[in-house]
Write a structure and sequence with these properties.
The protein is α/β, with parallel strands linked by helices and 343 residues long. Helices cover 57% and strands 14% of the residues. The protein contains 13 helices and seven strands. The strands form two sheets. The protein has a five-stranded mixed sheet with strand order 3-2-1-4-5. Strand 6 and strand 7 form a beta hairpin. Helix 5 runs antiparallel to helix 7, helix 9 packs across helix 11 and helix 12 runs antiparallel to helix 13. The two termini are 50 Å apart.
Length: 343
């Protein structure tokens, strides 16, 4: 007899429900520790066939830790599971766990591919770098805004130029300097930490042959290439290159019901950050004018811009870039400017 387990994971505790032959045979709670959970599952479900839980902040850790304990862990799409769980009259952790156990038993769920820890480490590096850059920009804007109140307009400039302009304007204004200089010191320190992560990111890009391969495309830099490789992991995860664009939310939504059938805006599903990076790369492809940037992909995008406008053309080129990059990872070939638009 096989048992089917549902886990409702939270930061502190995890609710557990075990079913067998269409009936619940045990239900309880445990601290959110995969090792303790594995011990409970072995005790109450010696022939566990599926251990199901939803996507969430702890899902990557839970999946790999439970798998290491020999558990048949399955992470399922939370949005799909929620539509089933919302049918219960009272929403409780226990009821949600029972619902997940039922999904595990019936097989009525959509499994999610959980990323490897190496890929998550790379994504964390990119996210941390972006967060520091965002904080740096916020601080510099805050400094500019506070000093404008006193008629001190900071000239355009970045880095040391900005630092020097601020200190020059504060010279002789001790009261304001006591307020602004701590912000300026924090801004400078954050930029220093961001630069350290920049160097680490470039080192990761140099060490990866696949990243170097993707950087042969005009407009694709180290951040975009590293982020793409971390998101895709193995190109065999996608049956066709065209499906990558849909996975990243770069294809249009469609609604069809009876006589109603229309397309909407892009779905914006999936990795928001990578989608933004591809859009920026598409912008570079469409606006860069040197000889190295010329390709059929660019010509195709420029024709779209004339007909649909810049933003729609950039989205189309971003989707095409996602497809081309996946094809390059599968074949191991460098970017071919003459074949870019038809990849």
């Amino acid at each position: 007899m096989y048992q089917y387990i549902g886990l409702d994971v939270s930061l502190k505790d995890t609710a557990i429900s075990i079913r067998q032959d269409g009936k619940r045979i045990w239900r309880g709670k445990s601290p959110s520790d995969p090792k303790l959970l594995a011990q409970l599952i072995r005790k109450h479900a010696p022939n566990a066939r599926r251990v199901v839980f939803e996507t969430g902040p702890l899902s990557t850790w839970f999946y790999h830790a439970l798998t290491a304990e020999g558990m048949p862990a399955i992470c399922i799409e939370a949005r799909h599971a929620q539509k089933v769980l919302d049918e219960t009259l009272n929403k409780t952790d226990a009821n949600d766990t029972d619902g997940l156990a039922q999904l595990a038993e019936t097989g009525f769920y959509k499994a999610v591919r959980v990323k490897a820890f190496d890929s998550m480490l790379t994504r964390t590096l990119v996210a941390a770098r972006n967060q520091l850059l965002s904080i740096s920009t916020q601080l510099s804007n805050q400094i500019r805004g506070l000093m404008k109140t006193f008629g001190l307009i900071i000239s355009n400039g970045r880095g040391r130029v900005f630092d020097g302009n601020v200190r020059e304007l504060l010279d002789g204004n001790e009261g304001l300097a006591k307020i602004i200089l701590p912000l300026l010191d924090a801004w400078r320190d954050i930029r220093k930490r961001a630069a350290e992560l920049d160097r680490r990111l470039l080192a990761v890009a140099r060490e990866s042959q696949t990243t170097q391969l993707l950087m042969t495309i005009p407009g694709i830099g180290a951040v975009t290439a590293v982020s793409y490789v971390a998101a895709i992991e193995d190109p065999e995860n996608f049956k066709t290159s065209r499906s990558v664009g849909a996975r990243l939310g770069l294809t249009r939504r469609r609604y069809q019901s009876g006589e109603v059938d229309y397309d909407g805006h892009i779905s914006r599903r999936g990795d928001n950050h990578l989608r933004g990076l591809l859009y920026e790369a598409a912008t570079v492809v469409l606006t860069r004018t040197n000889s190295k940037s010329e390709s059929r992909l660019k010509s195709w995008g420029l024709k779209l811009r004339e007909r649909l406008g810049f933003k729609r053309a950039a989205v189309a080129v971003a989707r095409k870039l996602a497809v081309i990059m996946h094809s390059m990872l599968k074949t191991g070939e460098v970017f071919n400017p003459l074949a870019g638009a038809t990849a």
